[in-house]
Design brief:
The chain is mainly alpha-helical. 81% of the residues lie in helices and 0% in strands.
């Protein structure tokens, strides 16, 4: 029964994505919605809040599907809020991370450290900056790949 709800909701999202223009699909982050549905279904057995979020997302996607030709700014805002609440729950309660989180964090850390070490060691920012960025990207990409391998990516 539960798998049927998941497959039905994913089919609704796919169908909705195919009937609207690409700009609207990107704005609604429908690919992220599919990943969220899959994650919610995997946690809904043990987590009542995930089950409630799944039901809320299911109801919301039905409403979006019914009003696909007349979407207003408030619909986009409500969608972003619902997806944000669900993502927040999944990251806080179930320790999931968003795609590219570590890459962004470590690239900025590497940039700042590259500037500092470029000035201190080389006495030239231009030498330290690419080294710092390169190290940050390498570390961040490695941690993102590790999180994906462990199944902790949203």
């Amino acid at each position: 029964m539960e798998n049927q709800r998941v497959y039905k909701l994913i089919a609704i999202i796919e169908n909705f994505k195919n009937t609207i223009n690409e700009h609207t699909a990107t704005k609604l982050e429908l690919d992220k919605c599919k990943r969220i549905v899959e994650r919610l279904s995997s946690f809904s057995v043990d987590c009542a809040e995930c089950d409630n979020h799944f039901f809320e997302l299911e109801k919301h996607m039905m409403q979006l599907k019914d009003t696909k030709d007349h979407l207003l700014d408030i619909d986009y805002k409500q969608h972003k809020q619902i997806i944000g609440n669900i993502s927040s729950h999944l990251t806080k309660q179930h320790k999931l991370v968003t795609k590219g989180l570590y890459l962004g964090v470590y690239m900025s850390i590497g940039t700042s450290l590259g500037i500092v070490f470029g000035m201190v060691i080389f006495d030239n920012i231009a030498l330290g900056l690419p080294i710092g960025i390169g190290l940050g990207v390498a570390i961040g990409a490695g941690l993102d790949a590790d999180a994906k391998k462990k199944g902790l990516t949203l």
